[in-house]
Amino acid sequence: NYVTPDTTRKNIAYGAGICVSKGSNMKINGGTISSNMASSTKANATYAAGQEGGGIAVCEASTVIITGGKIDNNKAYDGGGIAIRGDSTVTMSGSITVGTDASGNKDMVLSSNGSITNNFAYMEGGGVYMANGTEKGNTFNLTNGYVANNSVSTSGSLWGQGGGIFMGQWCVINLSGGRIENNQAYDGGGILGWYAVMKITNGEIKGNTAQRNGGGIYNDYGNLTFDNGKIYNNSATKEGGGVFCYSMNNNNYTAAKMTVTGGSILNNGAGTDGGGIYFEGTHSTTKGALKITG
Question: What is the full DSSP assignment across 222-265?
């Protein structure tokens, strides 16, 4: 399926697969949402701002509950897999099985249920895009889900952000279990939060890459809480292979924070500074046992 904008809506086109309109409630149990595209033309993948949610677009003040299933290989300007707008809540739950594959590779996801995979966004949020909200904010709850192999543009002068997940101002993500893996972006390979709240409990951020900063997580003036999870094998060409935290010279917002209550940050790499964690003008708090190695 596809959606293309008309001139009366100023290039806006939401939800090539599914569009959840303003103030609606929806439940999705299982199934696959695949190969949909929100773009300027049907024949060619030409994108412009306002074309959101290749798989699903969730409009203002809506609630969506997704149990299991797969959102795969969708495309849009923002939010290749899912786009969430204006004070909405999306809850997704699933399961993953981790083990050794047929080639002998360990720590591989052998099967997943409740996954967002192989989606592409031209600019922000290859897997999930969360637009700016009010102080109430958008919320994305992910329990034992799998966000993997999503990407945004990184070529030329394009600064695509949030390969797996992009979070705008006032947005909240609660990641409980599951894995964010092998996503790619210019900044924030796994997750990029801009004035956002990220809560990670027993989740894993693995193998994500950034062409510039924040291979695993890019925390821009936000609040990152990391509780007994694992951030490993991520990389950035410049700074913050595992985590990049930034806040400088802005009196209008609270400085970025990272609060750690256990877990591990392992085997991440950066081209210049901060293989595990890079702080710039950032307040950080560590509680409990944090292991940083590799």
Answer: -EEEEESEEEES-EESSB-SSEEEE--S-TTSPPPEEEEEEEEE
